[in-house]
Write a structure and sequence with these properties.
With 146 residues, the protein is an all-alpha fold. 74% of the residues lie in helices and 0% in strands. The protein is built from 3 helices and no strands.
Length: 146
């Protein structure tokens, strides 16, 4: 294997992140409990009568854009792989400059990686823009009905 040197830092990073997350959860729980205790001492239940009614959101349709985001991301990754393949095919086709196998592999890795990240990011940006347009149209329709 060529990249055995990376295993130790990755394992250390994962363990460190797990320990940090565990401590953060414990500390956050203690902070919340102390805040609840401090507020609970000052509140009287008679003060909250009639003020704790939550607004009704049942008449609004809940729209999730998760499928849109995932679809745009997957389409962007697919397009990135295609562009990376086209870049590699065009560089390798009868080109004696890239005859060195190590250099050709590095070019392939960089072009595939950069293309996938670039087009995946563009796909997420497109999903964000489409979601904002849908939200804006929905708000305009809601205001026009009132």
């Amino acid at each position: 294997m060529e990249m055995e040197f990376i295993y130790v830092p990755i394992v250390v990073a994962i363990i460190t992140a797990g320990i940090y997350g565990l401590f953060e959860l414990i500390i956050r729980r203690k902070e919340r409990l102390t805040i609840i205790e401090k507020i609970g001492d000052k509140l009287d239940p008679s003060m909250l009568r009639g003020r704790m009614a939550l607004p009704s959101y049942s008449n609004l349709p809940r729209v999730s854009y998760g499928a849109l985001k995932a679809g745009c991301l997957i389409a962007g990754i697919g397009l990135g792989l295609l562009v990376g393949f086209i870049i590699n095919a065009s560089l390798a086709a009868g080109n004696t400059l890239y005859a060195d196998e190590w250099y050709r592999n590095n070019i392939a890795g960089v072009s595939y990686g950069a293309s996938v990240l670039l087009f995946g990011g563009i796909g997420l940006i497109i999903a964000f823009v489409v979601e904002m347009n849908f939200t804006k149209k929905k708000k305009e329709e809601d205001h026009s009905e009132e």
